[in-house]
Amino acid sequence: MHRIMAVSALLFMPLLTACASSPPITQIKTVRTVVPAALTNCKERPRMPAPPVTDQKVGRLIVDLIDAHDDCFGKNQRIRELQETEHAKTD
After folding, report:
1. What is the pLDDT of residues 29-69, one digit of tens each?
2. Distance between CA 89 and CA 34 in Å, rounded?
3. SS3 readout for the chain
4. Residue 16: is it exposed, middle or buried by C-beta count within 10 angstroms (0-12/13-18/19+)?
5. Residue 2 is assigned to a structural domain of this protein
6. What domain count does the chain have?
7. 75: pLDDT confidence band, cut at 50, 70 and 90?
8. pTM, rounded to two decimals
């Protein structure tokens, strides 16, 4: 009987010590990034061409769409870089 109790105590001992360990510490930091106003406004989406729609008008629309996308994508990329720089400073 004593042997069974001793073996049981040895088996359950690691479980008891695992509960006594301290919980992981979580630290939350708030980082404020100052974004220049010039980076918060993208070019407007081009409007559909007025009828009659010609190949030239469609081509111009495509070029304007790509230009608007590149403008906004570039500004978003710059904002991302600013945030990463601010985040690196706090670490």
Report:
1. 787 888 999 999 999 999 999 999 999 999 999 999 999 99
2. 14
3. CHHHHHHHHHHHHHHHHHHHCCCCCCCCCCCCCCCCHHHCCCCCCCCCCCCCCCHHHHHHHHHHHHHHHHHHHHHHHHHHHHHHHHHHHHC
4. exposed
5. no
6. 1
7. very high
8. 0.60
Q: Which domain, by its residues, includes 64?
A: 27-90
Torsion of CA 71, 73, 75, 76, to 10 degrees: 160
58 part of a folded domain: yes
Q: Amino acid identity, residue 2?
A: H
Q: Which residue has the tokens 């601010």?
A: 86
Q: Is residue 35, in this structure, part of any structural domain at all? A: yes
* Residue matched to tokens 């070029």: 63
Whether 13 is in a domain gets the answer no
pLDDT tens sequence across 12-36: 766 665 555 678 888 887 878 889 9
